Amino acid sequence: MHRKTPAPLSVWRPLNLDRFLLGAPHYPEHVDESWWRRDAERMATAGVNTVRMGEFAWHIFEPHEGKFCFDLFDRAIDVLGEAGIGTIMCTPTATPPRWLTANYPEVLRVDVNGRSAGHGSRQHADTTSPVFRAHSRRITRAMASHYKDNPRVIGWQTDNELNTTVSESFAPSTRLEFQKYLQKTYGTIDALNFAWGGNFWATAYDDFSQIELPRPLMPSYPSPGHVQDYHRFLAAATAAFQHDQVEVLRATNPDWFIFHNLGQLADIDFRGQFGQDLDFIAFDIYPMLYDEMRRTGGHAATQALHLDICRAYSGNFIVPEQAAGLGSQPGFSTMTPEPGEMRRMAMTSVARGADGIMFFRWRPAHFGAEIYWMGVIDHDDVPRRRYDEASRFFHEITAIKDQILGTVVRMDLGIAGADFDNQEAHKTYPIGLPSPLEDATLLHRHCYRNGIACGFIHPEDDLSRLKALYVPHWVMWKDQWNDAVETFVRNGGTLILSAMSGTRDENNHIIREQAPGNALATLSGVRVTEFGRVVPEGGNGLFPLFRQAAMGAYVPPSPLPSSSAERKYHFALGNRQFEAAHLYELLEVAPDTEVLGVWSNRFCAGQPAITSRSLGQGRVVYIGTYLTPELAETIVDVVLAKAGVTPLLPELPAGVEVSIREAKDRQLMFILNTRESPVTIPNVPPGIDLLTSRPVAGAVELEAYGCIVVLLSL
Length: 714
What we know:
GO molecular function: beta-galactosidase activity
CATH class of the domain at 413-534 and 569-643: Alpha Beta
Largest sheet: 9 strands, mixed
Number of strands: 27
Catalytic activity: Hydrolysis of terminal non-reducing beta-D-galactose residues in beta-D-galactosides
Helix content: 25-40%
Keywords: Glycosidase, Hydrolase, Metal-binding, Zinc
Shape: globular
CATH topology of the domain at 413-534 and 569-643: Rossmann fold
Enzyme class: hydrolase
Strand content: 15-25%
CATH architecture of the domain at 413-534 and 569-643: 3-Layer(aba) Sandwich
Strand order of the largest sheet: 13-12-14-15-22-21-20-17-18
EC number: 3.2.1.23
Structural class: alpha/beta
């Protein structure tokens, strides 16, 4: 296997490896050694070429401080290597051993109520702690030195799902590191006081040593700038913690690839040092878990959304944990994939940018907090349908890997994403409005269900491959994005801006120009003269939101006077009437700007709600409200269709997803049936189904959870 130097971060970046990584996380420390060789033989027969191990084994690598023992993993790596299977090692810093937390209790996280974490779980150590960082460097250096000349160790994963269990800490050492971060960032206390608005509520400081960590509602709200900087600090500290390990690994063996596997994506700035340090980013994919936790209405659509969000951070990725069966910890469990569904979910990951898939896990644990988290092999050591599906998938991908590697996922519609500051800015002052991602999800879901090539992209990426770009209520708009976005429009692209865009600066101050700020106003031909909240769709007022926030717990909504509940705002777009969601804006429109939608009731009646301005060969559309499912559908029909954003397949049946991966010389169309019953796809373009080597065209029937990968005729 060969590693190339990775290209700069971009949604369009392919992986820098010449191998499609196929396998499973493996835990030889959980299994009697007499079973290891049988495991390796079964893996090889199934088509496994890679395993991942060691992420929770610090206590084995270093049973006592300064005394290292690698024998167990050395033997396991050799057994796997003899079967032709390479090993990805992990730095084990997600689970520091008991001797460490006993001897150095200052490394433990402290929660918002001042309670120190206890030993007996994971991620109990504070990654902002200088003491813990020193131990992290030490174990990484020892492991790297031991394995530097072992050709069977092909790459490394840093830690495991950083910040997934918890990202915040309120330890004394965290406070001190936060103060150091702020002093380095601002230089003077006067600069910080300006950024945080110290003249509001007398929150100014005389010295950096006075600054506290921002605890919520103590007794009222802290400055948005204070909160934003705390999360910027957490992201910088997470990146620095990982950077320590990456520095050691790169210096020891520059041929190793290095990645990190993400879970919940909290307090990590992927576009900053964190992502730039890595060869690529990896994402753990548990579609049924995400869907049940977030109630997003369908795990297939949820998986596609999650993958598209992740790809925007760094381009193509690997999945070191792909759901194989039921997933469970003591407090939750997921649904179980039906026969064929495990393979389909893995194929969805490939269709949306994965260049490596590892089913979690090879065999399930018999002890600990995940005893019902099922693996490829069952508890009784019998390979059943999950093994058969994994084997089928591995062999299929192995046969077509050369067609897949080097391709990227096509997008006709890009949704602005992957920007840490905008994500956090919303959280600091949401006022009951949906987050940018919550709003964007409505548009993404419509595109997914209708087979439109849609994904997420950062404005710094190459926009020329898009036909349209939607910016979902980004309150922070940076001047360095202006030229690229304007060029995109002048060259024929359609830019869609939305309410509240560009209304705050990087300090979370409201801008002093008329919204949406001079640059976006010039682009769109629109200035906002007034905005106001409206009752959310299906809601009955805002007072319950305040009560919930103020009391720290959910309070059932109280009935409101009918006049409040009935204060609805409507607008017309085309020949349809819509109810506004969440917010209205009144727009002042430049002479060269066309009005597409008009407010149609109350005091807003007759005033512009949605506009369009031609610029070069493209146009800029401004939407003075938030999306609803109905408005998202109409925007696609009225605005995006004119931009050439149309379904990849006409007459796409419900429950069928379609996407394209492409390079300059080829296009691969993935058509996947997410339903439990067969379905006929009526208009498949001519090509070769790579999974069967058979020609396809016109009507094609897919079995329950069936998949085809069509090499299109160009």
